[in-house]
Amino acid sequence: MSDSPDRQESAAPLEIEVEGLRKTFGRREVLKGISFSLERGGFLSIFGPNGAGKTTTLRVLATLLTASAGSVQVAGHDVREDPMPVRRAIGFISHNPMLYPDLTAQENLRFYADMYGVEGREARVTELLERLELSHRRHDVVRTFSKGMRQRLAIARAILHRPRVLLLDEPHSGLDPRAVDILDGLLADIRAEHTFVMVTHNIAKGLELGTRLMIVESGCIAYEQAAGGDPASFTAVYREHVQEGPLL
Amino acid sequence: MSGWAQFKAILRKDLIRELRTRDMLVSMILFVLLAMVIFHYAFTVKEGADLTYFTGGMLWVTFIFAMLLGLNRSFAQEKDEHCLDGLLLCPVDRVTIFFAKTAGNLIFLLIVQAVAVPVFTLFFIERSYAGDVLPFLVVLLLADVGICALGTLLATISMNTRSRDLLLPILFLPLIVPVLIAATGATTLIFAEGAGFADLVARLLFLLGFDAVFLVAAWGTYDFAIGE
Amino acid sequence: MKKLVSAPALFAEAGICLIVGLLLGFWWAPVDASSLGFSQKIFYYHAPIAETALVAFGVAFVAAIAYLRTGRLTWDRLSYVSVRLGLLFSILVMLTGMIWGKAAWDTWWAWEPRLTTFLLVCFLYAAYWVLRSVVDEEQHRATYAAVFAIIAFIDVPITFFATRFLPEGLHPVVITTGDTGMEGSMLVSFLISMLGMTLLLAALTRRDLAIEKLKDRVADLKSTIGG
């Protein structure tokens, strides 16, 4: 099912361990037994056609959904038994910015900082606003922000509490080039010491950033490999599954 | 990052948001004032009709329906911007969210009542109840807690369903009848005949009991109401 | 023992008890000495139906808690079936209550504690139905319904207290027969009817639950075949 010879070689501890993950909504089985693991510092790029279950998998990792069966461990804790430490350890960036439109950028960040118990709240908020080039708009309500700016603020929200694991759901989609640069720069900055799981349709980004690549299709892992191989051959496999795969 | 700090953070966020947009407050206050005018026209069909023993009822019916309006508003925002996800990602006890939201709704209801009660007194109350203001306020507060606690719990459920605006009143109204009975009885007594704490003991204890029971029930079930 | 609690047996047992109770109540027990007279006899059905309705809601309450704790849908089915039966019985309570009211005091409706409580109970559990109908996804539906079933059941005694404990003093019609001591023959007839009604509830619940389980199986098979 999965071909990952580097699993035995890796000495880094496992940050994410998924075993037999199943998820049913009513009678519809969306995830049919997903198993994978990711070592600390790794970057997993997940590809797949729409409706394959990629986002569902991510949401289970984020404790937003409960698995119907199987075990999921993130940052050393079981997401079902012990969700609190998991929540402290993860940051989630999706195409929903999850920001309050009638609060200012600063108020949004302060709120989340308080919720996560971030120490040195003011300094951290200021630091991130500068990093994401939003300082000049810190007192403006988010309703007035462009999509790119909201995404940038959402990134700030996600890394505010210095999470060890970052979960990204198509983070590059809808971003203007400047925002893409800022995001990539940020990811590069925090690349070391952090673990990433990114769902994306952008093969180039996925290949560029990932240490491990996975294609999910109809709730199962259709293909898995360590990064570093020939991009063309992976692209071929990708097209096989995503473009010409069975219709959902 | 104690529960208390998170409670304050959520409450502060909701207060800032509401005071800035005044969405809920304006609609609720307008509704309440309009309702009073409508009541006048609806009930004074006969010349010199005496509404004294209807006053408690009119007041509380108005507040309950105003709260239903407000609750729909307050949760619609969380849902529409997917902010609820953001909140659920935080390492926060779901029950803390419940208490913070209930407290916020309570504050908004009290603000609305602060405007409504004087106007209502002006429109409908002839007898002065100045001596009984304190018991009146206690009745108000106790009934409000019950209304807000139950309302917040049910709004959390109904906002996730297909017909969220229509569902909430159907779920809420049968459950709130006991509060309505007790609050109306006490309020009418105060307005019509005057009543001190001694006269109202039974009703006050009942309201207190109701609040306690449903706060505990909400505590036990809120995890499920807000999850997934 | 198993034979005694199988569905057909339960129906038979219920039937026997109810008929015996009816016969005893009408022919053996004396006519009520109070002003109610013969109309009091409806009490042999009215009260058991009422108590059985509450038992049904109680079962729904327990099943709801069980569902929230275990996540197994069977509990949800039990809760749903019990609420439906409880609702049916509640409507019957009101109908028999109204008939009694008409016979005894010549009025179809009175805002007295028991009737009003059951009226509210009907609305409450009708709301449960509406809630179920507007949630599409099965697990969500079961979860929300369970929360509501729990809250609703807690509210039932509270509502009763509210209507009774705080009398408005405006309605003189109060049915108090339940409080007066019942002498021997009346008591026996009453208890047999009670037993019969409860057995009837058990029989209906069992049958309805079996039907729901069958429906689930059909749906499962459909989705496996249909994809």
Task: Give a structural overview.
The complex is a heterotrimer of chains A (248), B (228) and C (227). Chain A is an alpha/beta fold and 248 residues long. Chain A has nine helices and ten strands. In chain A, the strands form two sheets. Chain A has a six-stranded mixed β-sheet, sandwiched between helices. In chain A, strand 9 and strand 10 (220-226) form a beta hairpin. The longest helix of chain A has 14 residues, at 177-190. Chain B is mainly α and 228 residues long. Chain B has one domain. Helix content of chain B is 83%, strand content 0%. In chain B, helix 3 (55-80) runs parallel beside helix 6 (133-158), helix 5 crosses helix 6 and helix 6 (133-158) packs parallel to helix 8. Chain B is globular, with a radius of gyration of 18 Å. By secondary structure, chain C is mainly alpha-helical. In chain C, 77% of the residues lie in helices and 0% in strands. In chain C, helix 2 runs parallel beside helix 6. Chain C has six helices and no strands. Chain C has one domain (40-172, 182-216). The interface between B and C is medium-sized, with 34 and 30 residues.
Based on the model shown, name its key terms.
A: 248 residues; alpha/beta; six-stranded mixed sheet; 36% helix; C: 227 residues; mainly alpha
Write the layout of secondary structure elements.
The complex is a heterotrimer of chains A (248), B (228) and C (227).
Chain A: H1 6-9, E1 14-25, E2 28-39, E3 43-47, H2 54-61, E4 69-74, E5 77-78, H3 83-89, E6 90-93, H4 105-116, H5 121-131, H6 147-159, E7 165-169, H7 177-190, E8 195-199, H8 203-209, E9 212-217, E10 220-226, H9 231-243
Parallel strand pairs in A: 3-8, 3-9, 6-7, 7-8
Antiparallel strand pairs in A: 1-2, 1-4, 4-5, 9-10
Chain B: H1 3-21, H2 23-43, H3 55-80, H4 83-89, H5 94-124, H6 133-158, H7 164-192, H8 197-226
Chain C: H1 7-28, H2 43-70, H3 73-105, H4 113-133, H5 138-165, H6 184-226
Helix pairs in contact in C: 1-6, 2-3, 2-5, 2-6, 3-4, 3-5, 3-6, 4-5
